[in-house]
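Standup, Tuesday
Yesterday: got the pipeline producing structure tokens again.
Today: sanity-check two examples.
Blockers: none.

Example 1:
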Amino acid sequence: MVREISAGGVVVRQKDGGWWMAAIELPATPDSAGPGKGKAKLRPKPIICLPKGLVDAGEKALDAALREVREETGITAVPVTKLADIKYVYVRSWGDGERVFKIVSFFLLQYQSGRIDDVTDAMRIEVARAKWVRLEEAPKLLAYRGEKQMAKRALEYVKGHDMQ
């Protein structure tokens, strides 16, 4: 089984009297309809997730999280605390179909600068758009269970700590 190590960020900012979180929407890709099922069709609803990606050789997880946030959302952030690691197994849907054991380290980050969704054209292969969502609503909006948990932890943290 292959191992992958990734890192991501829950970027928060206070705006309009509440906490907001940076999220990304994945590009709609045709799902294979399978043999005899006709044309492939686009996903029925957008997949909303947290910015994250592989940790490069020699790179620290926090540095990878900050880089991925910048690349996938267009914003820069500063670290607050590590939230947790999530671990899961998936089967690659491309190439070799190999089973992969994945660990993703998530960090709570605070918005510093930049404009959300100011990403390169090349990044549009991975990110249809980046947007601010209310942190309270994030667990309902995010597609993946582990990421829903990270949004809940971030909300608990900001409620229990004096962050500006």
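Example 2:
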Amino acid sequence: MDPLPVKRALVSVSDKAGVVEFAQALVSLGIEILSTGGTARLFMEKGVAVRTVDSYTGFPEIMDGRVKTLHPRVHGGILSVRTNPAHLEQMKKNGIEPIDLVAVNLYPFKKTVAREGVSIEEAIENIDIGGPAMIRSSAKNHAFVTVVVDSADYGRVAGELRKSGGVSLETRKYLAVKAFAHTADYDTAIHAYLKRIYG
């Protein structure tokens, strides 16, 4: 669909620059926001209506936050092909709601390993798992999902939503390409660090 309407967004970011204003813009347009951890707490503090991912999935964040978005109700909501009747039936059967926009950026791995004296354990804990999975899922399914990995794109997306009630296919393509570049750069940084440390 072009432009693509957005009814539900998942917003969970490490870099919180501009995210409150972006979320406020989404809520003002009647978009439901799902969020996790520190981002959800920030929204609550700022009075932004938010639904926590664990309340949506019915499964708590576990293992010190290592597992929170790796759930079929999250990835089914992102990856479903909205024009496929079988997918729609499976969503209905499993209580999966469509997620139309995903705004995610990743744990600050590069900044972490750039600090003097950082331990390998701390570096490992800053390898994001759920974030890249959501970004890649959204970028893969950009025919039906808008993915935002850079706060510089918040204004463009919010502007299109205000103007036309949806996000254009042109913008979704642009953002999908940017998303895959983001995860590729992230994995390259992890590879370079581990190669240097482990040899």
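Quick observation on example 2: The mean pLDDT is 94. The first helix runs from residue 19 to 28.
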